[in-house]
Amino acid sequence: MQNEIKKVYTGSFINAEFIGSVLEENGIKFLIRNYQQEGLLAGWAPNVIKGDASVYVFTKDYDKAMLLLDEIKESEIEE
User: Fold this and answer.
1) Each residue of 54-73: pLDDT tens digit?
2) DSSP readout, 3-62?
3) 11 and 33 in contact (C-beta within 8 Å)?
4) Which of 2, 5, 71, 78 would you label with 44, given CA atoms 20 to 30 Å apart?
């Protein structure tokens, strides 16, 4: 079960890249799915409603990743 992945974020691709950089700095491997890019490569323009990208991590890293995301949200609120 260690190789299963879980979604930690869905939203803008820019935010997904930022989250990916934070995860990488903390030694967490991740995957970003860019739905718009996937659609364009497939030859059609996707109608994305819930966000154009998602970030996934391995299940074993999920709790640590969520703690990091909570820290990011808290720091945004304080500013």
Assistant:
1) 999 999 999 999 999 999 88
2) T-EEEEEEE-HHHHHHHHHHHHHTT--EEEEEHHHHHHHHTS----SS-SEEEEEEGGGH
3) no
4) 5
For residue 18 the two structure tokens come to 């930022």
Cβ-Cβ contacts under 8 Å for 53 (sequence gap 6 or more) = 10, 11, 12, 13, 15, 16, 32, 33, 34, 35, 36
Contact assessment for residue 56 and residue 7, using Cβ atoms and an 8 Å cutoff: yes
| Upper half-sphere CA count for residue 74 (Cβ side, 13 Å) | 6
